[in-house]
Design a protein that fits this description.
Length: 248
């Protein structure tokens, strides 16, 4: 693959929070006549590098879609390999995150994961919670519709118990029931591999997010590709529902 030209983002507005749909691992491996799981391993290595690159560029929050609620429908051999990869990644992530001063959180329905994976998540979140560098969030067994339904069930229980008055329910209150509580909404979404859909990812949080789609397969994604996305982001006019005259 040809070397990508560096892009100077000096002086540009850097998105505070970047979300990424890590797409194309399987196709990347297939192009190399390798099993899909090989692509997932390479994709995990790319995540490590992009965490470092994003922080160095000035990004404060990075959220990646690692495993969706729909991914359980994949072949069992691939699911098993992904779960093993995630467990090993989370284990290694503790030392790496602390050495890089990175705080790690995991969103999604953790009840659908095995005990070993849940224990690793709990340990990782606890041991990195005081870190002040990049806020890195991993979506595992995550689906946005599932997230909102789980949130509504807890809120309904709180209303029933008298903890919440129905007339006090608003956007800010609802957001406290979401997995992303305490995390600002993404400014920029990047999806790799050429697909142009959200795939049930952060639907509530993406209300005013800018979308950037690239044909680059995730294992090939580099800091130059991230810079390209930031360059595109700087060309967008983010009005958040306002008209131009209101901004003057």
């Amino acid at each position: 693959m040809a070397k990508k030209s560096p892009i100077d983002i000096t002086g540009m507005k850097i998105p505070n929070h970047v979300a990424i749909i890590l797409d194309g691992n399987g196709r990347w491996a297939k192009k190399r006549l390798m099993p899909r799981n090989y692509g997932h391993v390479k994709g995990a290595q790319t995540v490590e590098q992009i965490c470092e690159d994003a922080w160095n560029m000035g990004v404060k929050y990075l959220t990646v879609y690692a495993f969706s609620t729909e991914n359980w429908k994949r072949p069992q051999s691939e699911v098993d390999a992904l779960m093993k990869l995630l467990k090993n990644y989370l284990k290694d992530c503790i030392e790496r995150s602390n050495s890089n001063n990175m705080r790690v959180r995991v969103i999604g329905d953790k009840t659908g994961l095995n005990d070993q994976l849940r224990d690793k998540i709990c340990e990782l979140e606890e041991m990195t919670k005081e870190n002040t560098g990049l806020n890195f969030t991993i979506a595992i067994n995550y689906g946005s519709r599932d997230e909102m339904i789980r949130a509504m069930k807890i809120m309904a229980s709180d209303v029933k118990d008298g903890k919440v008055e129905p007339e006090n329910i608003d956007e800010k209150l609802f957001e406290t029931y979401l997995d992303t509580k305490g995390i600002p909404d993404p400014d920029l979404l990047i999806r790799t591999s050429g697909e142009q859909r959200l795939s049930n990812y952060l639907l509530w949080q993406f209300a005013y997010t800018e979308f950037y789609f690239t044909d680059v397969l995730w294992p090939d994604f580099t800091k130059e590709d991230l810079a390209m996305a930031i360059l595109a982001y700087n060309k967008r006019d983010r009005r958040f529902g306002k008209v131009e005259s209101e901004e003057k």
